[in-house]
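Retro notes (design track)

What went well: tokenization of the new backbones is finally stable.
What didn't: we kept losing track of which sequence belonged to which structure.
Fix going forward: every design gets posted as structure first, then sequence, in one message. First example under the new rule, 371 residues:
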């Protein structure tokens, strides 16, 4: 079971709460503005240090509060048990702990909490900047390849140093920094390529289950041209790099191209279809993560009904149920979900004016049915 207990205080309109979620499916329903998304946001904050709704913590912190506190008891089938605690003050100071010991990096919390979010703006993964898609790939690589974080940190340092040299026009230092930059770039690229090779069949299978009519291909651009080694590319681009004070090629320019035939999927697909593709990407990541690490992803599905019709809602719910992951799923009315889907193992929570109450009995156990 991933999250065994969740305590939240100082988040938006939520009253201080402690929840004991179900290991599989958790429905949260309630009126607009009741606080459903804020519960999911709290879990995402613990996992990544960031909200999926705003880049500024001050908007997440309850207007009446001086501090936000989150505590999660985790029971991971592979890593064991842990208690994560996050404290953030209005002043911006923050403290992250695991089992009482201070963590110096968010990556450790992320390691314990492999969270995927599917929410109304999720189609931005297709329409947003390449960085969003790079982060998507890197989430997968980070969670299955243990050395990736070290390669990534080394690469960031090398890139920073190389760019500083370019800005200062200190050409003589380039030959000192280039070998390290090339080595870490190639390590990152190799891990991304290998990951995507394993990822693609998972994606095709998930998409076929969500919508068999959609034909979408994934193509990876590594950040420098195909069939040419990075050393030659850097040499050829050196003059221009020096002129602009920036390294034009490398894994920081990689891109996951998502296409329908030869066209970018975002230009062709409807919003509902885009959301379906993004859901397939996220389900595929969870599925691959599960196969390769023997651990499970936690899915936060906010406002499932937005953009997806009943058939696609059902297909997504069924896929998530089959993955046997812990899922937190919100909807304005319970019926929008429960009319189409009756998972055998679930809990239902009602959210009203920031108060979250577990409804006595879960949904009647019944096999899932849909035409
Ligand atoms: N910093 C804050 N402090 C206090 N209240 C806040 C703060 N930010 C937002 N709110 C309020 O908290 C609530 C947040 O609701 P949330 O978005 O979680 O609701 P929801 O149930 O997901 O709604 P919807 O169904 O409309 O998506 C809203 O009523 C909002 O006005």
């Amino acid at each position: 079971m991933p999250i065994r207990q969740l305590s939240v205080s100082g988040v938006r309109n939520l009253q201080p709460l402690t929840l004991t979620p179900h290991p599989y499916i958790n429905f949260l329903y309630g009126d607009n503005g009741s606080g459903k998304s804020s519960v999911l946001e709290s879990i995402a904050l613990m996992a990544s240090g960031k909200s999926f709704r705003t880049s500024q913590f001050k908007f997440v912190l309850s207007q009446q509060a001086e501090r936000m506190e989150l505590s999660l008891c985790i029971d991971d089938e592979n890593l064991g048990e842990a208690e994560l605690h996050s404290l953030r003050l209005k002043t911006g100071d923050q403290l992250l702990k695991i089992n009482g010991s201070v963590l110096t990096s968010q990556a450790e919390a992320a390691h314990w909490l492999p969270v995927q979010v599917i929410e109304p703006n999720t189609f931005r993964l297709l329409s947003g900047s390449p960085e969003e898609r790079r982060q998507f790939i890197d989430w997968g690589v980070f969670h299955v390849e243990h050395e990736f974080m070290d390669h990534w940190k080394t690469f960031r340092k090398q890139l920073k140093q190389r760019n500083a040299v370019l800005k200062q026009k200190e050409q003589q230092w380039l030959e000192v920094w280039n070998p390290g930059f090339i080595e870490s770039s190639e390590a990152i690229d190799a891990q991304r390529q290998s990951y995507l090779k394993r990822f693609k069949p998972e994606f095709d299978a998930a998409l076929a289950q969500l919508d068999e009519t959609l034909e979408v291909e994934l193509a990876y651009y590594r950040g420098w041209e195909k069939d040419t080694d990075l050393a030659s590319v850097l040499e050829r681009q050196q003059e221009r790099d020096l002129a602009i004070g920036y390294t034009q090629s490398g894994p920081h320019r990689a891109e996951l191209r998502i296409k329908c035939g030869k066209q970018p999927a975002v230009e062709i697909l409807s919003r509902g279809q885009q959301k379906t593709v993004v859901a397939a990407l996220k389900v595929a990541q969870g599925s691959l993560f599960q196969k390769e690490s023997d651990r499970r992803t936690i899915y936060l599905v906010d406002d499932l009904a937005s953009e997806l019709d009943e058939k696609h809602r059902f297909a997504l719910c069924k896929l998530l149920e089959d993955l046997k992951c812990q899922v937190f799923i919100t909807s304005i009315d319970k019926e929008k979900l429960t009319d189409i889907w009756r998972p055998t193992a679930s809990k239902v929570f009602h959210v009203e004016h920031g108060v979250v109450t577990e409804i006595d009995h879960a949904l009647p156990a019944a096999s899932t049915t849909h035409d």
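Added context from the reviewer: Confidence is low (pLDDT under 50) at residues 365-371.
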